[in-house]
Amino acid sequence: MNKKSVTLVFLLLVWLGVDMACAQYQPEHYRVFSPDRKLVMGIQRHNDGLLTYTFAVNGEVLIKESPLGFRLESEETVPSSGWKIENVSDREVRNEWKPLWGKRAVVEDHFNELMIDLQNPASQPKWMQLVVRGYNDGFAFCYKIPEGEGQRVNVQSELTAYNFAGNYTAWFYNGENHNIGPEKLTETDGTRLPVMTVKAGDKHYMAIHEACLETGAPLVLQSKGGESLFSVASKPACLSPGYTSAWRVVLYGTTPGTLTDSHLLELLNPDPDPCYDFSWVKPGLAVWDWRINGAVWDGFTYGMSYPSWTRMVDFAAEQGFKYLVLDANWYGPEFESDSDPVKGEKAQDVQRLLGYGKQKGVGIWLYLNDVGGKKFPIEKTLKQYGEWGAAGVKYGFMSGTQEEKNQWTKKITELCAQNHLLVDFHDGPVHPYGQMRTWPNAVTREYCHAQLDGHHVFEPKTFVTTVFVNMVAGPVDMNNGMFDLRPGHTTRVDESQPVPSTLVSEAARTLITFSGVTILPDIPEYYRKYPALLNFLSTQKMPWKESRTLAGEIGEYIVMMRETDEAYLVGAATNESGRTIDLPLSFLEKGKYTVEVIEDGDDAHYLTNRESLKVATRQLTNNDKLTLKLAPGGGACLVIKKNPSMGGSEQATFPLVSPARKMKADIKVGGKNVEIDLFTDGGKVVTAKTLQFSLDENIMKGNWQVSCQKRESIDQTWHPIYGERSVVTDRYNEVALTLQSDKNRKEIVLYVRLYDEGLAFRYAFDKLDFWNRTVTDEKTQFLFQEDCKTWVTGMAQGAYSETKLSALRGAADRPQVIQVNNNCFVAIGEAALVDYSRMKLEKSETGFGVQSVLSGKVNLDMAGYQSPWRYVMVAGHPGKLVENNYFVLNLNEPNQIANTSWIKPGQVIREVTLTTAGSMACIDFAAENNIAYVLFDAGWYGAEEDAKSDATTVTIDSARSKGPLDLPRVIEYANSKGVGILVYVNKKALHQQLDEILPLYKKWGIKGVKYGFVNVGDQYATAWLHQAVRKAAKYELMVDIHDEYRPTGYSRTYPNLLTQEGIRGDEESPSLDQAIYTLYNRMICGAGDYTNCYFAERVTGKMGGRAAQLAKLVALYSPWQFVYWYDRPEKSPRRAGGAGSAESVIKTDAVTRFYNSIPTVWDETRFLEGEMGKYAVVARRSGSDWYVSMLNAGEQQQITLPFDFLKNKKGYTATLYYQASAKKKDVVDIKNIKLDNRNEVTIDLVGNSGCVLYLRQNISGQ
Length: 1262
Prior knowledge:
Elements: H1 6-15, E1 28-33, E2 39-45, E3 51-57, E4 60-68, E5 70-72, E6 77-78, E7 84-97, E8 107-119, E9 127-135, E10 138-144, E11 153-158, E12 161-164, E13 169-173, E14 180-184, E15 190-200, E16 204-211, E17 221-223, E18 229-232, E19 238-239, E20 247-253, H2 256-261, H3 264-267, E21 284-288, E22 296-297, E23 300-301, H4 306-319, E24 323-326, H5 347-360, E25 363-369, H6 370-375, H7 378-388, E26 392-396, H8 402-418, E27 422-425, E28 442-445, H9 460-466, H10 503-512, E29 517-520, H11 524-528, H12 531-538, E30 546-553, E31 557-563, E32 568-574, E33 579-584, E34 592-600, E35 613-621, E36 625-630, E37 635-642, E38 652-657, E39 663-670, E40 673-680, E41 683-690, E42 693-695, E43 704-718, E44 728-741, E45 747-755, E46 758-765, E47 774-778, E48 781-784, E49 789-792, E50 801-804, E51 816-821, E52 824-831, E53 839-843, E54 848-854, E55 858-859, E56 869-875, H13 878-883, H14 886-890, E57 906-910, H15 916-928, E58 933-936, H16 967-976, E59 980-986, H17 987-1004, E60 1008-1012, H18 1019-1034, E61 1038-1041, H19 1050-1053, ...
Parallel strand pairs: 21-24, 21-29, 24-25, 25-26, 26-27, 27-28, 57-58, 57-63, 58-59, 59-60, 60-61, 61-62, 64-65
Antiparallel strand pairs: 1-2, 2-3, 3-4, 4-12, 5-6, 5-11, 7-8, 8-9, 9-10, 10-20, 11-19, 12-18, 13-14, 13-15, 15-16, 15-17, 16-20, 17-18, 22-23, 30-31, 31-32, 32-37, 33-36, 34-35, 34-37, 38-39, 39-40, 40-41, 41-48, 42-47, 43-44, 44-45, 45-46, 46-56, 47-55, 48-54, 49-50, 49-51, 51-52, 52-56, ...
Helix pairs in contact: 4-5, 7-8, 10-12, 15-16
């Protein structure tokens, strides 16, 4: 430990404002101020070595001299005489914390800190550090024992106490009962539980609690009657090296709302472990199956059963609520030890419900009682819930001492995090102490008297006390929001009492109560009875942007404001006394607002007339004041939305933010223009000028004005049948603006979605207004602020070139990547192109940018009166654009094929001889090498371009092979070997014979069809092609579309469309830099059939060699990977003449065995690093194995790869398949590397080459 001289200590104490006069007679004194210097904590070291502290506000002492430290079992006091202050240091810290969810989006973390190091060589422990932090809303201190210092010693008691300077008034937590208090401090005799909220006179409020409790018993306070001193009655079992106590916290404010709004407890907890990704944690409202049991509505009786559950899920989906909570006994009687929490009597129904909820975008919570949680292995139980797809766990009736419960709570929270489960602890849980910062999945707990506790409901005064006491500790699950307030409506005795509240107060309480999941207890029909209140509930879109207690007094009333991206919401509640509240709206930004005011009716009363309410809408500004009348036990609810300007040519702006606030879009409607400005943290990225249509009849006249806007937020995941990842996140905010012409009232709806990955918009045309109209042109512009670099190709199979926006020539295929700056790349493209004309991009007519150009006219009737999506993806690196390409899939409709078991990706080998003997040899090779399919390409039914060639017959094209080919025999043999047969059909036969060949091929046993040289671009060709995919699905035939077709995400809707070309593949012998351009550009839009030519001689030149071919197989994704295009197995006969007869012979060795083992679909994909056209490093995971592809089109370079993405702590063995610098391009070397997730590896990557690093997890014990 560092030691400073006495001189330095003296100077520091002077700086801290310490009075050093006569130091040998007076205690040493240190002070820690809050950043605003209003609060001060003084630390005194007395001559006997004891430490005490005081707390004052603006010079007024609120806590007078109070002890610090510990008393050991040996009766020694730590610190005491013999202990010396060895070092004193201080610092000021100013940070920001951006919680995933919470009371506000951004939290200031600003404090002054003092660290006092104490030493006593003769004591155990020998060292102790006191750390004190001063914030503007309180102070905190903790004790630390350094690592490696001293021995473990047992503790008799902690000496920390709070010696209040007056006989103040206090309130306390009291379990599942009404709070204790108001109580004078001198009236307390015995123990009390935190939070302890203290009112000191009329202008000071304090709350006593703790934060970041790692070990020891949770805080308990103790006082003797007649005294104002409260000591810490809980203690750690021992002091040992590395020990850190919980933070002892005194929150302070001039109003009680300051305590409720504080984040100090969370700030004293650490950030999450970086190995955890908590992006899946989503706060929100939930419905619940507990209180509804026995409720009857219109002949339907609710119960804790599947029919009721699905009814609740439907309601949640309808309202945008995120969850349904299943409570006790779904797996059997909860307190019986034989009730297995994964094999219970309703387990099958629950699993079925999880699937139903997933379809509806509603997560399902599962209840788990402590009996089942401890009788059965908790790790397996929670792992099973995670694998089922549950959203969270409600854990009830935890037993044990408080210290045991704290450790069990921590364990369950971590296990839930590992299995992507939220968690809610019920029935006397350990108090919150800020752990939601470290574990954001710990979204709430029942640290209160909830509405459905035991056999009693709480009174209005209990609610307005709890929010200033219990809720100071953290989120609480209070079960507010009862809308059926009558007695005797369910079969449960404890839920059948009349509720002492009003409807409006019940709704307001759902907002006032801070919780990561707000659980609504009643049946849907009662919420639908009151549409204004239901709208208030459904407008509560967490996470909150801002929260603020606007007014309130402990036990009297409260007014809470919470802000979303779309609205300000206000809830007010009072105790048994009615009151009138004047509420200034100064918390609003400047502007005009529409305020929906929901108040208690004039005759409302919490005992006699609970349902009475009134609703009014008012136009107000931030300079106005609202007068709210609250009935006894009542409340008020406000929904406040800013008014957009909508009239004439005046411009109105409609803001939209992405779910994680990474992007913002301003949609500007004014005159004839509708523009979308897209922003990131780095500033404005692009302006999209929309509605640039030409129609066959000029009906789009006048100025646009918004007649209606609808907003929606979606947060869901889905599991593709195959893909580049096993789970896809679909999370966006959407606004639908109904645009109406002020001349002829024609309407178009503009849908705008904002994801964290980018922007998308599409048009829906009013069917009556645009009946049978034709779009003749579309010139949607995407404009940038300067002349940017871009990469383009004029054809889907063309080569890429780099240019500037100002130098664009002709039309480029999409997606088109544009570099805005060094940290911003965008991709412009289209998604969900099904029956519309294809969009390409050309130089914009104005400014720096591109504009859309259609490949033909669009009949709106044929197009279903809606356009495809136009999108702008944004990322800091071009590789992230490809990594985020699920964005394109999300813009398409979900899977429409009910049974997908026949859709199977895999490697494919082309049979090059078109002979029976060659086919048999090829099938044997495929079976031996795990190759799933054999393809018969052009020539098997005749000359492909000859319109007379009949694709219902096997007629070999003599220009390609002399045959013979007995295809039925070949198919039969392939089936016996577990190998599928694919066939190629040219567009000529497709157009003439599609409806004939598809059922025939199904009958033959063919597994899929490669559509060749198809027509693309115009509306008819587009619609016909996607119909041909749908028809193939009818006969369980998979499809590969070749030549100029590029995907727009239709494989999500019809996953039998496994892959497509639209890519410059190995048939064109592209240089390696072109392959890398292809990776960064073409692969954004989806799978690409690249026809890897591993053994062909052509690959050993500019294409980078065989090591690069290996790397491309990993990097360039296709569910069907064509792995040997010009290559035949060694046992296959050589063709005697015919086009392309100079095929290579496949030589089997360790490298080809690895090549044939490379998966074609993946569970996870990451782009690690790279540069456009120069090099790329892509990591893909299949199961627990990782494949890292590296491609280098430039000179030899070193690439250092940190393997922090290997989350499992077990070691990995890596095998590197690479091009040695001194060897020919047709040679691939192999070497093994040992590593784990803490390692990084440096690889010498040969120029114009590639390599693959294959990582497999070590077997336990290796």
